[in-house]
Amino acid sequence: MGYQQSRWSYAPEKRLQEIANNFRKKDIPCDVLYLDIDYMDGYRVFTWDQQKFPNHEKMLDRLKGQGYKIVTIIDPGVKKDKGYSIYDQGLKNNYFATDRDGIPYVNRVWPGKALYPDFSNQAVRHWWAENQKILVNHGVAGVWNDMNEPASFDGPLPDDVQFNNDGRLTDHREIHNVYGHYMSKATYEGIKTATNKRPFVITRASYAGTQKYATVWTGDNQSLWEHLRMSLPMLMNLGISGFAFCGTDVGGFGFDCTPELLSRWVQVGAFTALFRNHSSASMRDQEPWAFDEKTESINRKYIKLRYRLLPYFYDIMHDEETTGLPMIRPLLLDYQMMKMFTELTMSS
Q1: Catalytic pick from 146, 189, 287, 320?
Q2: Is 287 noted as a catalytic residue in this protein?
Q3: What percent of the chain has pLDDT over 90?
Q4: Which of 31, 220, 256, 319 does the annotation list as catalytic?
Q5: Nearest C-alpha neighbor of 10 from the set 61, 46, 58, 63
Q6: 146 is catalytic
Q7: What is the pLDDT of residue 233?
Q8: Catalytic residue among 130, 149, 171, 256
Q9: In CATH, what number is assigned to the domain containing residue 195?
Q10: Is the pTM of this model over 0.85?
């Protein structure tokens, strides 16, 4: 629940370590650092790029000693690559979604030609859960499920792509909305089995009930004042829809952020359940110190305020578990009668 720093991408290892050292050097609290898609070997899920991160286990252990937890991204698209173990296992066991003729369906995402695990099949979810050990055993603390709508570069998945749905065959029209939900469920269960701790999972796609398995964020926003404004009703609506652990990309993911926009956004983000700064590879740096001393000072002040309030936030989240009331609440949750009285007065 502390401050989290992300970017597409902190690579190679030297860059990630530089970011970690700067937070400590500049006395800015930070608990979580994210690794986006460039940590993987050719975007193959559950692998590491040995040139960018030649000693990733030692690196993760060193960062843990500095007080950091590392969250790695995982996409559902499995690279079509004979000899790559995840692909070979999935193909051998019929774990991928297929076309109407039973041939594994192929589209294109970050690794190029890729296949999609059929998360509607319990056997596939169990297999995916088991694979979480690959990350956890190396020292990864949490998993970020992305591109799990599922996303695809060569047009959307056709309606007639076939899914097992635990023995009741169906197609993409039925599974599309729950695909990310099932992926998060498998991820959650795999991390919990591997660690015997409460898992941290963040997901881009979700469905009713996903809050049992993952936190969510509002997707790839932009560094615009309008997107900061829009984030407030979005988070309040997520909260009253059951998704209390939610947040936005603080500062905005796309476009170049400005000093004032980052300052204002971190002032809002400090009071949201998920407090993560994230930005795109092609945009300017967006860390708390990336602009000037004034902006850095504002970031430090409100990030530290966040940590002072953590016991209070923790209690709020505990209450949410029992009452369902979210951390971020529209006024109508506390002032229903006042709202009704106002409406009656104005209509009379």
Answers
A1: 146
A2: no
A3: 93
A4: 220
A5: 63
A6: yes
A7: 96
A8: 149
A9: 3.20.20.80
A10: yes
